[in-house]
Amino acid sequence: MTNRKTEKIFLSPPHMSGEEMSFIRKAFESNYIAPLGPQVDAFEREFAEYVGIRHCLALSSGTAAMHLALRILGVGQGDEVIASTLTFIGSVTPVVFQGASLVFVDCDRTSWNMDPDLLKNALEDCKSRGKMPKAVVPTDLYGQCVDYERILGLCEEYGVPLVADAAEALGAFYLTQRRRDANGEQKKDNALLGGLARENYCHAGAEAKAAVFSFNGNKIITTSGGGMLASDDKGFIDYARNLSQQAREDFPHYEHTEIGYNYRMSNVLAAIGRGQLRVLDERVEAKRKIFAYYREALGDIPGIEFMPEASYGRSNRWLTVILITPEEFGADREEVRLALGSVNIEARPVWKPMHLQPVFDCDLAAKKSKKKQNGKRIYIARRIGGEVSEDLFERGLCLPSGTAMTEGDLNRVVETILKRSN
After folding, report:
1. What is the pLDDT of residues 334-392, one digit of tens each?
2. Domains in the chain, ordered, with CATH?
3. Torsion angle of alpha carbons 283, 190, 174, 396, nearest 10°?
4. What whole-number distance in Å separates Cα of residue 119 and Cα of residue 8?
């Protein structure tokens, strides 16, 4: 028998609702086991209704969704794409797939997301160079929306499409000034989005040209692996759908006039997604309660800070993230992580900024060189700022945030952290 006090506590494991099997059974009974089928169609419809984005395309991963979006926007050799530097690499690798270059923009302290002021600087710089970026790709970090109102405004001003990396932000919402003006000021609290007040908010990615979501095994809901591309532009999604299915033309035989991909989600995985989607709101509330528990237990400890919640939105708190200042706490982030690991508790550093990744070189002096390191290609990029994300990486630690965690599990984490304090 497993000892609950010593068994592994994972960072963010899957949490099944119990409803998935009924949809999986229907998929098996219909014999739609290969990609596509009624479960995929239903999952796309239900997802679109939840996020408030008209057209959705279920795919094999969030990275595939990003790749299709950038392909359709015409990103290619010699182009630039502006992206968040504090993100998961899957958010930016499709830019490289398309042969384009990256401009990494730092985050701000109030949201940990792309700094709108630095984005404006980056767009002004591009304008002065006489070459605008093909897209802006901000990441909704750890389930918190970027400042969509400001970032969308800048993208509209400079004529650049926004592709929202909302992979971590399913169930997160933001309030724009337009909706405030239309519906009146709304008080934000934990129950706000459980009822009619949701209509006053936009879901993460809802007003972008396209939004990308992920259902990886560690996300707030999962299909084990998978993603979704969403857009209000039907033509955009129709084209993405064709590309995701090997770009086959409408002939009885296989006819191709362009190169596509094998990116569609299977009917069985979509069945899992339908069961997961039904408990999404419950999972968000559970994540927020976990955050509140940690904050209550650790919020007054010298040297510990929590990821803030931006005033304009409501995070899904996918992961609870803390900052550790070693001079005040008595141990640094890595010492705390190793202490947790020693008692079978998984914790991870905040994303390492993209401009610090060895695969990218942001040294402008090397701009024209084609560098290689140990035989591996190094990609030339640019960066705007970087000090904030570097500090967050240096001090940031993601704590276990699985929605099936018990109070005993949370106490194990808290007690282990407190043992490392002064």
Report:
1. 999 999 999 999 999 999 999 999 999 998 644 555 566 677 899 999 999 999 999 99
2. 20-279+351-384 (3.40.640.10), 282-349+391-418 (3.90.1150.10)
3. -70
4. 41
